[in-house]
TrEMBL record:
Chain ranges of the Glutamine amidotransferase domain: 22-158
Protein's recorded name: Type 1 glutamine amidotransferase
Listed Pfam families: GATase (PF00117)
Ribosomal protein listed as a keyword: no
Length: 220
C-alpha cells in the first residue's frame, strides 16, 4: 500500500543497517521483532532506536506508526513503560476504547493477528489509549495528532504464519501456546479472517495517511 501510494521506502534492519538521518525522513513505520523491548544488553541497537524515535516523534513531530515491538518501542521512547504480560497469540478481537481518527470507520470490535508476550504498562505523558484487547489493556495508543501504535499486526499477509513458524524460537512458542499443530491452526485462522484483516488494514492505512497528511493513493 505504501509503494502503491507513490512513496519511497527505506527498509532499515536494526543490528545490521544504520539509521538514516532524520532530515531525510518524512515518516516512520516501526515494525515488530522477536526481541523484547527492554533487552538492551543483548541488542544494544535498541538504545539508539529509542533515541531516534524520541527525536523523530517528540521533538520533530514526524508522523509515525508503530506495530507490535514498534508499539512498545514508541511507548518506552516517549516516556511510558513495558513489562512481561498480556501474552496473546491468535486472530483475536480488539475493541475501540476511545475515539481516534486513526480508528475511524472500523467496527467497535475488529479482528487482528496478535502475537506478543510483553505489554505496555504505563502510557507516555499526554498519550491516549484508544483500543484494548481481552488480555492486553493498552492495545493501541494515539500520541498527539501524528503518531499511532498498536500491539497487533495489521500488515499480515497470507504467508506470515509460515514465515514466523520457520523461526525455531517462534515454533517453540506456537507449540507451547497452541499445541503441536499450532502453526496450522493459526494459518487456518488467518485464512478464514483474511478478507476482514485486509479490509481493516486498508482502513487503518487510509486513516493514518489522512490524519498525518500523507497521500494514501497516487494522485489522479
Amino acid at each position: 500500500m505504501i509503494a502503491d501510494a507513490g512513496h519511497r521506502m527505506t527498509v532499515v534492519l536494526l543490528g545490521r543497517d544504520s539509521l538514516p538521518p532524520l532530515d531525510d525522513v518524512d515518516a516512520l513505520w516501526i515494525l515488530g521483532g522477536a526481541m523484547d523491548v527492554f533487552e538492551e544488553d543483548i541488542h544494544p541497537w535498541l538504545i539508539d532506536e529509542k533515541r531516534y524515535i524520541r527525536e523523530a516523534v517528540q521533538h520533530r513531530g514526524l508522523a509515525a506508526f508503530g506495530i507490535c515491538l514498534g508499539h512498545q518501542l514508541m511507548a518506552e521512547s516517549l516516556g511510558g513503560a513495558c513489562a512481561k504480560g498480556g501474552a496473546e497469540i491468535g486472530v483475536l478481537g480488539v475493541t475501540i476504547s476511545a475515539p481516534s481518527p486513526f480508528l475511524a470507520d472500523l467496527p467497535p470490535t475488529f479482528p487482528v493477528l496478535i502475537w506478543h508476550g510483553v505489554e505496555v504498562t504505563a502510557l507516555p505523558p499526554g498519550a491516549t489509549c484508544v483500543a484494548t484487547s481481552e488480555d492486553c489493556a493498552v492495545h493501541a495508543i494515539q500520541y498527539g495528532s501524528r503518531a499511532f501504535s498498536m500491539q497487533s499486526h495489521p500488515e499480515v499477509g497470507p504467508d506470515v504464519v509460515a514465515d514466523w513458524a520457520a523461526i525455531p524460537a517462534a515454533a517453540v512458542v506456537l507449540a507451547d501456546r497452541l499445541g503441536p499443530d499450532g502453526a496450522d491452526r493459526l494459518t487456518e485462522d488467518v485464512a478464514r479472517h483474511f478478507p476482514d484483516l485486509q479490509r481493516n488494514a486498508r482502513t487503518l492505512f487510509d486513516n493514518w495517511c489522512r490524519q498525518v497528511g500523507i497521500p494514501s493513493e497516487v494522485p489522479a
